[in-house]
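Researcher: Quick one. two chains, 515 residues in total.
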Amino acid sequence: MREFVVVGRPNSGKTLFTLNFAAYMGSKTVDVISRSYDNLVSCRHFSITEAKNQLCGMTLHKTPFVQSLVLKIPLGKIDVNFKITDTCGIGEHIHPNETIRRGMAQTLSFLRSADYIFHILDVSGITTEHLEKQTSIDFDIYNYGIVHNRYTLLANKIDLPSTKEKIPKLAYLFPKANTIPVSALLSQGFKEVKLCVAHNL
Amino acid sequence: MSYIEPQNIILAIEKGDIPPSQALRYFQEMDFKIRTNSQVNHSQKRTEDILHELDHLIGLSDVKKIVREIYAFIEIQHRREKEHLHTEPLVLHMIFKGNPGTGKTTVARILSKFFREIGILSRGHLIEVERADLVGEYIGHTAQKTREQVKKASGGILFIDEAYSLARGGEKDFGKEAIDLLVKAMEDHKNEFILILAGYQKEMEGFLETNPGLNSRFPIHIDFPDYSTQELLTIAQQMLTARQYSISIDTTATLLTLLAAHQNTVHENFGNARTVRNIIEKAIRRQAVRLMAKGSTTKEELLFIEGVDFVEVK
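Model:
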């Protein structure tokens, strides 16, 4: 089964994207398989609304370790299963909390082994510093993904008015990336993401 | 600090020794090294395997020498390009001259694989055509057929056997049109395919003399000399070994006499390695008939071709 890993900074909307994308693909309920950093696997069954209430939030590092969903996509006359894995957000600096550091290490481990990378970028977080120094972790993820040729940038939070003027700058910041503007909250741009999944299965 | 294994990087993040951004850069370097090394090693190994396959062919020392020269030339052109020096254009259209069964098609097949490995050809396939595949029957038909073959050969080698037959029909024949189209295609698509014209020595020389424009467009001319009797014997032994058969010393002498007789008596139509293959296959069938008469056979009997099996082979 092909595995698509969703990575990005903390609070960029990875979990909300994963759950709303599952809903867009026709799932009413989801089995969330979590794998802790010591390889303890647990499975929880949720409705999409319950999952969003429990797993998403405004606090940083709400997702401390990877959690996967198995979804179906119709290809021709058959349905093909694929795995989408939501990860712990990664930042530029060494985190003081060991649990979070382990979560980040697990994210990078999955990033290396995944078949495809969906990099969620919080467009509202693009600042002048980004434009000048390009020091954000997002550039490191981008550089890693581009080299591996199995990467798509999902420019998230396009529903916010402040992001409108920033979208055109993405072509300058991430020139080689295949970019899809999305709103994880409003499920916008998911048709293109679905096409991307179908294309890379 | 340098990290050798990806697991060490993961541990370093967990311990708080390096930030995730640094880890990603380490991973990138690590993956790049692994990929580059494996690509270079695989490509080099495949190129060596192909050259080994060529070296394994009996005789053809001139052919082997020219292929090595081409390899060295291409390699040096690449190195010059890296140093921003002037490079010679790589025109690799060839003429193969030799009697039937001297290995022209076999060498062309090996060359197609070789050129793909060293990056000259994108697909490295061989399209083998003759007059009938290129020359049409009515006006406009030849252009259509020739263009189709050139298109098919894109990324590979277009091998025209008995190429002189294109000029066989004289001025009014459509063969001349095919030649003109091929010359144009060689110029227009020079980086996309390699054209090899093959045929008997004498006829090819006559063909090139009557079409002086052609000669200058083929920088590489390779002669395929007839095999000596000893070389033919080695080829026969190779063929027998490949089919899990064997011959005794006495039978070897019989086979040698048979090959020499073939070379002396029917020289004009002698098919060299192809004739050897036919002789071997006939002998194998004769052996089968001989053994069928016996009720039971030993492993040794099944393995050995006797002198008597070669006697009746013509």
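The beta strands of chain A are 2-8, 29-35, 41-47, 66-75, 78-86, 116-122, 151-156, 178-181.
Researcher: Thanks, that's what I needed.
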